[in-house]
Amino acid sequence: MTQEVIFQTLGTLSGQSIGVVTLNIEKALNALTLNMVAAMQNQLTRWKNDDSIACVVIKGAGDKAFCAGGDVRAIYHASIANPNNITDEACEFFTQEYQLDYLLHQFGKPVLVWGDGIVMGGGLGLMAGGSHRIVTERSRIAMPEVTIGLYPDVGGSYFLNRMPGKTGLFLGLTAYNMNASDALYVNLGNYYLTSDEKQPLFDAMAELAWSQDNDTNHQLLSDLLSGMTQPHLASLTTSHLQQFQSQIDLLMAGDILDVHHQLSTLDTELDWLKRAQKTALAGSPISWHLIFSQAALGSALSLAECFKWELGVSVNCCSMGDFCEGVRALLIDKDRNPQWLFTDVEAVESSKIAQLVTSPWAADKHPLADFL
């Protein structure tokens, strides 16, 4: 039985150690199972409190993906067996996943994420929590939840709403695949290395003068990565998101019906925008409304408040939204022909969205009540 996630510690010349997490289900593009999430939560908590660990690295096995998202099949099967009920499986998976993501955001010590290859959904939740987020020429980063009747969770309510202009809304509705330049532009990545620089990076990290001071360690790693990134900056292609920011803002302007009309009538020669348009228009009409509700949260909520909001919406999606049908069409039967609950965005009943965004728990009974 192969370990789904591998934990190692690397010694350094300073005497301090580096904790290394490797997501290890290469054939499933390192998609997160509940067991992996629980194991990481336990190990990372130990490393956070271990003075001998100066820094943590999270990477994926193989060269195709860092992490393609969460393995949601168990939630699907539980939800199908218990229609219109919030299942223990959905509660447990999303609760533990968000606890892990929140731990990374609040870790204190430097957390380096090697975001090479595919980084989607739950993988992006891990990456967004890292302090040092590396993208490469192979990075393909997206939040594709609109295709399965969900919405960009795992902290998306926090980081999408802090992106330039209407970029966050565009990424949520279209599942647009970002490359390294795009990720740097919207601050999902903050350093760029080529994929063959992974080992030289780890070798250099072993020689840093790590201490037990988090601020010093952050600066050491930042200086190393800035130095390694600098030679590549001139050769990076321009980000589509940056180059077409004003057009994206116009396309995403107005209310949900305005945006749906603008996307429906868009006539473009740009292949990347055509793909984005097609994905958005095929997506769940409920997801559209949830993504607009998420965008309406703005940037006033704290990270903890965002995760609390998301947990309620996510478990509700599994019991009374389009999630099960989306997962069936994409992952179970793979017919790619979802029969959404509503035929189009305009047909979605406001009472259904109100239900979905209402937390199933009282504030003091919320599974994430201890988030500060």
UniProtKB/TrEMBL annotation:
Broad EC category: hydrolase
Reactions catalysed, as given in the entry: 3-hydroxy-2-methylpropanoyl-CoA + H2O = 3-hydroxy-2-methylpropanoate + CoA + H(+)
Pfam families per UniProt: ECH_2
Top-level lineage group: Bacteria
Domain Enoyl-CoA hydratase/isomerase: 18-356
Keyword terms, alphabetized: Hydrolase
EC number from the UniProt entry: 3.1.2.4
Keyword RNA-binding: no
GO molecular function: hydrolase activity
NCBIfam families according to UniProt: PRK05617.1
Record's protein name: 3-hydroxyisobutyryl-CoA hydrolase
Provenance organism: Shewanella vesiculosa
